[in-house]
Amino acid sequence: MSRSLTRTATPGIFRRGNSYVVVVRDADRRQVKRFADTLAAARVLKAELTLGADRGTFVAGGSQTFGEYIERWLVTYRGRTSRGVRESTMEGYRASLSNYGLPFFGRSQLAKIHLRDIKAFADHIASTGATQATVRGYVGAVRVVLATAVEDGLIHHN
């Protein structure tokens, strides 16, 4: 049985059991809920989310995983320049992502991949005895995917 929401003195913030629910609308006017442990934290969260929505920079993120996004990305990616991307480059991306990127990030939500995760990925590849150039290539493939996710509005930054 779900716990009901109780209004607080702050519009858009509700109490639910021992935590607080912040309800805002994103730039596309979709309702988004986030949770906080304290009323003070909920007020800060609401201010940040509202500011992001007003600026059009707030991205809900969703629950799409890296693996799910890669499936579509490999089929639809055409490069980030007017010249497009060479087939040999795409083959390199495909190999890098299937051999290293997917096993490492496959189940991770796109919105929850952070710089520390990219660094851990680079350390993981380096621990296999790969050269620095190889590490840069594999990390580069992941960064291209994340840059496209930013362009698609799925994550806030790369």
Helix/strand layout:
Elements: E1 6-7, E2 13-16, E3 19-25, E4 31-36, H1 39-55, H2 66-76, H3 87-105, H4 115-126, H5 132-151
Antiparallel strand pairs: 1-2, 2-3, 3-4
Helix pairs in contact: 2-3, 3-5, 4-5
Write up what this structure looks like.
The chain is an alpha+beta fold. It folds into 2 domains: 6-55; 66-151, Orthogonal Bundle (DNA polymerase, domain 1). Helices cover 50% and strands 12% of the residues. It is built from 5 helices and 4 strands; from the N terminus they run ββββααααα. The protein has a 4-stranded antiparallel beta sheet, with helices on one face. The chain is elongated, with a radius of gyration of 19 Å.
List the keywords.
158 residues, alpha+beta, DNA polymerase, domain 1, four-stranded antiparallel sheet, 5 helices, 4 strands, elongated
- What proportion strand? 5-15%
Helix/strand-derived category reads: alpha+beta
CATH superfamily of the largest domain: Tyrosine recombinase, N-terminal domain
- The proportion of residues forming helix, as a percent range, comes to 40-55%
Strands of the largest sheet, in order across it? 1-2-3-4
